[in-house]
Amino acid sequence: VQERIYNFSPGPATMPLSVLQQVQDELLCLPGSGCSIMEMSHRDKTFLDILHAAENGIRSLLNVSDDYAVLFLQGGARLQFSMIAANLLRGQSGKAQYLVTGSWGKSAVAEAVKEGPTEVIWDGKADNYNNIPSDADYSVDPSAAYLYYCSNETIQGVQFQTEPTAPQGVPLICDSSSDFLCRPVDIEKYGILYACAQKNAGPAGVTVTVIRKDLLERSQAELPGYLNYKNHADNDSEWNTPPTFAIYVLGKVLNWLRDDIGGLQAMQDVNREKAALLYDLIDQYPEFYIGHAAPGCRSLMNVTYKLPSDELQSAFLTQAAKHNLGSLKGHRSVGGIRASIYNAMPREGVAALADFMKDFVAQNG
Ligand code: PMP
């Protein structure tokens, strides 16, 4: 444990230490079951209880009603790019409409066009994806098959502060992979909200898709079985073997959020405090720490900035590593620094980075 650094990886990302410790304690033998979670049938009652507890954990944290199914899927967030369009666009008369605020929205569009007519109704490219539109900046076709957006662009570090408004009858679809469970969400506004687990909710291997049940009627029987949401919903995520270990760990993260943190409002308060520690420095030294996101669009999860030169940037990364501050290099497509400060990053970790940044600018600014 002593060797653990503050890990700012964008995902898979830092986990709550107490969760890792519980997993360690139970790894060889899940109490009462005679074997490891990894050695047990997915139809075993012990696992079914774990699956249902994880589902209930999501339902209670996000206030998800019975009008929605909660699915535990594989294939990561990227498979959702395809599944959403395959299930909700194929066979529909309306177009899919997309807001593109960064790299992941763009990748989602690239998959949707394979399934049917797809239109980008807002694209932040001209400003190098440093901002987020408001409702007045685009118009959604009232007969669209759905309106899609990514609530937090992990690479650029821009986040919607509130969800876009979809016209009555147009399902709103959200990729919440990198800000899942970071704040309260009004789930009733969504047709689908989904997230891969490996940033804010657990290990890689499971993706949570919350889908309004009436949308399941759009899924066509001709779809490959795994790609059909209805199969997963009708079989309570046991159409095939779900990623049992990942779901088990996810369940523990949900308990941590509920019991140790106190739910999503408390989590948002902590996340705001943590993010402010870094954004305050970006505001204080705007010519040295050059923030990427426009101030009203800053992400609570991925703080992106550049230093005045490549030399300073590499010195920053090398010295940060010596202070046990790791994985701060920005995505290869945009460069710079990216501090991913997901739910499980402790306040002390962000404070340590802020202290390091103060010292670094004092010495090099
Ligand atoms: N969407 C967002 C917002 C992401 O951050 C990522 C992963 N970095 C993905 C989608 C793709 O996720 P996966 O690798 O699980 O397919």
From TrEMBL:
Homodimer. Catalyzes the reversible conversion of 3-phosphohydroxypyruvate to phosphoserine and of 3-hydroxy-2-oxo-4-phosphonooxybutanoate to phosphohydroxythreonine. Keywords: Amino-acid biosynthesis, Aminotransferase, Cytoplasm, Pyridoxal phosphate, Pyridoxine biosynthesis, Serine biosynthesis, Transferase. SUPFAM superfamilies: PLP-dependent transferases. This is Phosphoserine aminotransferase. Pyridoxal 5'-phosphate binds at residues 77-78, 104, 154, 175, 198, 240-241. It comes from the Bacteria. L-glutamate binds at residue 43. GO terms for biological process: L-serine biosynthetic process; pyridoxine biosynthetic process. Belongs to the class-V pyridoxal-phosphate-dependent aminotransferase family. SerC subfamily. GO terms for molecular function: O-phospho-L-serine:2-oxoglutarate aminotransferase activity; pyridoxal phosphate binding. Binds 1 pyridoxal phosphate per subunit. Its EC number is 2.6.1.52. It is an enzyme of class 2 (transferase). The keyword Nucleus does not apply. Its cofactor is pyridoxal 5'-phosphate. Pathway: Amino-acid biosynthesis; L-serine biosynthesis; L-serine from 3-phospho-D-glycerate: step 2/3; Cofactor biosynthesis; pyridoxine 5'-phosphate biosynthesis; pyridoxine 5'-phosphate from D-erythrose 4-phosphate: step 3/5. It is found in: Cytoplasm. Its main location: cytoplasm. The modification N6-(pyridoxal phosphate)lysine is found at residue 199. It catalyses: O-phospho-L-serine + 2-oxoglutarate = 3-phosphooxypyruvate + L-glutamate; 4-(phosphooxy)-L-threonine + 2-oxoglutarate = (R)-3-hydroxy-2-oxo-4-phosphooxybutanoate + L-glutamate. GO terms for cellular component: cytoplasm. The keyword Cytoplasm applies. Residues 5-353 form the Aminotransferase class V domain. It comes from Rosistilla carotiformis.
